[in-house]
Write a structure and sequence with these properties.
Length: 536
Amino acid sequence: WKAAFQALLQIQINLMIWHCSSSLHKMHSEAHKSRGRWSVFILCLGLVIFGTNLARIGASYNSDGLIKYIQAYSLASSRFHSEELHYPGKFLDPEYKLYPFRAQYLLQFDGRNLGQYPLVFSVLMALPVTLLPPASIPFLCLGVAFLTLLVYWRVFKPSPIVLAYATFATPMITQSMELTEGPFVLLAGLGGLHFFIRAIEGGTIRDAALAGFFSALGVWLRLEALLYSVSLLAAWILISRKTIGTRHYMAFAIAAGLVFASFMLFNFWDYGHPLGTRFIANLSEPKPGVGPIERITQTITLVFGWKMKLGFFGYSPLLIVPAVYFAFANRDNTTTRILLLFLAGFLLVAGMIAPNDGIVTWGSRYMALALFPALLLLDRFLKLQIQQKGKLRNALFLCGLAYSVVLSFITLSIQRHASKDQSSIQGEIESTNGDVVIFPSQLLSSYSGLYYFKKPIFAVWNPEQMRDLVMAIKAHRPMRVSFVEYSGWTAREFATALQVEFGQDKIPAYLQSLAAFKTLETHKGKHLTIHEFVTE
C-alpha cells in the first residue's frame, strides 16, 4: 500500500508538472502569437500611413531623384549599350556645356557624359522606369523599405515596440519615399547583419562568408557599405580575437574582399578610378576651408545634430540609451560588445569622412547602415530591463518615442509642402511656349522635373554662354525661346544665391543677349517670370 500510494502521488505530481508546463507553453505560444499580430498590425499601419502620404506628396522629381531617373532612362533607351546621359538639347549643345544639371551631377571624361550615381542602381531601375509610370517609382522604393522591415521582423524577432520605433521613429521610411537606392542598401546590409550575428554566436564558416558577402554587397550602390563591412570585421576581431579561430575572420574578409575587388576593378576599367563615379563627383565638388575643426563639427552634426540639422541620435535619441547602458552597466554578452564597438567606430569614422554634413536632411543618410545594429541593441536593452521599468522610466521612454514620431510626421509635412511648391513651379515651366527653355542657373533648372524629357532645357552661367547659345539657336532654325526667371518672395533663397554667384547685373545682361530676338511677351506667374522670344 505504501508503494502504491507513493506511485499514485508521483503520478499526480507528474500530471501537475505536465499541466503547468502545458499551461506555460500555451501562454508562451499565445504571447508569441499576440506579438506577431501586433507586429503585422504595425507594419500594415505604417504602410498605409506612409503610402497615403506618398500619394499626397506625389512624384515631382527634382535634384537627386531626377538625375537618377534620367540615368535609368538613358541606360534603358540605349538598350544597355551606353551610359551616356540622355540630353534633348544635345543638337544645340553637343559638348554639354549648358547641361541643366552640370556641377557635380555631370561627369565628363573620355568623351563621355555620365551621371554621378552608380551604374548598378540605373540597371535595377531601368526596367521599372521603362514599364511603370513615373508616379509609381517612389512606391517601389517604399515597398523595398517595408520589405526590409518585414525581413528584420521575421529574422531578428524584435518586440513590437522596437518594430514600431523602427517604422515610425527613424528616418528610414521618410527617406525611402522617392527614387533612391537607400532601401536597397539597407536590405543588403540587413542580410549581412543576420549572418554576422549567426557567425559570432557560434555559427559556421559559411555564415561568416555570407556575412562578409552581403555586408559588402551594398558598395555597388553606396560607398558606406565599404566602411560598414570593415567596421563589423574590426569590432569582431577586437572583441573575440582570443576565443575564435582566424578561419571565421578570414572567411568574412575574403568574401567581402571579393565583392570590393570586383567593384574596384570594374570602376577602374570603366571610369579610371577604383571608387567610381560617386567618389569622383565628390572630389570634383570644391570644399574650401575644410580642416580638422570643420570635420569635427561635421561629425557632431551627423551623429547628434547642429544648427537645425538632426543627426543619427538627434532624430532617434532613444538609440543612444542602450549604447550608454551597455558601455557602462553590462559588458558580459560578446554580441552586445561587438555591436557596441561597431556602432562607435562606424559613426565616428563615417562622420569624419562623409563628403558633407547632410545639407538640410534630418537623420543622415550616411549613417543609415548603423540603424539595424542600433535597433538590435535597443531590443536587447528593453528585454533586459523589462522587469525593472518604473513609471519614470516608462514616461521617459514614451517621451523619446513621441519626439521621434513627431519628427517623422513633421518631415512628411515638409515633404508635402515642398512637393506642392515644386509641382506648382513645374506647372508654370510647362506652361511655356518655347521650343527651348533657358534658365539662369542650375538651381532653378532642377525644378524642371520630367519636363526635361519634353523640350531642350539649358542653364546659362554667364553672358558669354548666353551669346553662344543665341548664335546656335539662330543658326539652327527659327525658334521660339522661353527664358525663365524666379520671382516672388517664395524664391528668397534662390534670389540670394543668384546674387552671390552672378551679381546684381547679370540677369539684365542675359536679357540683353536675348535682345537679338523679337520679344513676344513677358508673363509673371506665382513663382516665375517667363520671357518669350522668337528668332527674326
